[in-house]
Design goal:
Elements lengths: L8 E2 L6 H11 L5 E5 H7 L9 E5 L5 E14 L5 H6 L7 H12 L2 H7 L11 E12 L2 H11 L3 H4 L2 H7 E8 L5 E3 H8 L2 H7 L7 E11 L2 E10 L2 E10 L8 E9 L6
Parallel strand pairs: 1-3, 6-11
Antiparallel strand pairs: 2-5, 3-4, 4-5, 6-7, 8-9, 9-10, 10-11
């Protein structure tokens, strides 16, 4: 049985859309690093994390969704944060400058300045930061993990990255597409790395808008998701089965099927 209730909370950003995105990135294995302000630890009187520390990752409702373990800590000036760390934060940043701009928007926000007790707080190259690396030890909410993975696979940046797709697709993945085509894992990975094929798969590049996402835990290691997807004037009802291998922590897509919905049945 998990010891999550006895663990200290692990909170990324403030409750809301940003935290939702960050938690989802952790649950899918995309986010393995984070950066905090040294000043925030000092203002709250909290000790710095240490390798081996375990915490309960909280979602925006304050529910523990995973147990995470610190695997490395560096205290350094903001100007020395490297590209690997920026990329491993899992927010899609392709450069340190891009990463820093996003973090400065957060650190200069009203909520963070209020938490620090400094309405004029700003950062520069010399500002102390805590660069933390972590791993997921246990997923406490399998349905949330499956939903996070499903939504990630709808993101163009994830679909275009073979490494990202490989992490999310089960070794035995198969799919029956809306056209009736039977997809193997190898064929899907090849298609997802070809942007022309991706456009064909999701409606010529039109934005995918999922609705009515529902998940059911069918067995300890099996989650079934259903939802409807609208793109390019089309509607498709989708069904996905996610599973966790006995020797793994993260969840992967095992089976997927899509059925077009004619106008009279929408």
């Amino acid at each position: 049985m998990s010891d999550a209730p006895a663990l200290p909370p692990y909170e990324l950003a403030f409750p809301g859309p940003l935290r939702d995105r960050l938690v989802a990135a952790v649950l899918t294995g995309r986010k393995t690093a984070t950066t905090g302000l040294l000043a925030a630890y000092e203002a709250e009187g909290e000790p710095l994390p240490a390798s081996g520390d375990r915490s309960a990752l909280l979602d925006s409702d304050g529910r523990p969704v995973a147990v995470v373990e610190v695997t490395g800590i560096r205290v350094l000036p903001l100007g020395e944060v490297d590209l690997r760390h920026a990329v491993d934060e899992g927010e899609g940043h392709r450069s340190v400058a891009e990463w820093r701009a996003a973090h400065e928007r957060f650190w200069h926000g009203a909520e963070l300045r209020e938490a620090l007790g400094d309405p004029d707080f700003t950062v520069d190259d010399t500002t102390g930061v805590v660069a933390e690396r972590f791993r997921v030890v246990e997923v406490l909410d399998p349905v949330a993990a499956a939903v996070a993975g499903e939504l990630a696979l709808l993101e163009p940046s994830v679909r275009a990255s073979r490494a990202e797709s490989e992490r999310l697709l089960d070794p035995e993945f198969t799919e029956v597409g809306a056209s009736g085509r039977w997809w193997t894992r190898a064929a899907m990975l090849d298609a997802l790395t070809d942007m022309d094929d991706v456009a064909a798969l999701d409606g010529q590049g039109a934005p995918c808008v999922p609705a009515g996402v529902r998940g059911v835990l069918l067995a300890p290691d099996i989650v079934h998701l259903t939802y409807e997807l609208a793109f390019g004037g089309r509607h498709v009802r989708r069904s996905s089965v996610w599973r966790r291998q006995p020797d793994a922590v993260l969840w992967r897509l095992y089976y997927h099927q899509g059925t077009p919905v004619p106008p009279e049945h929408r």
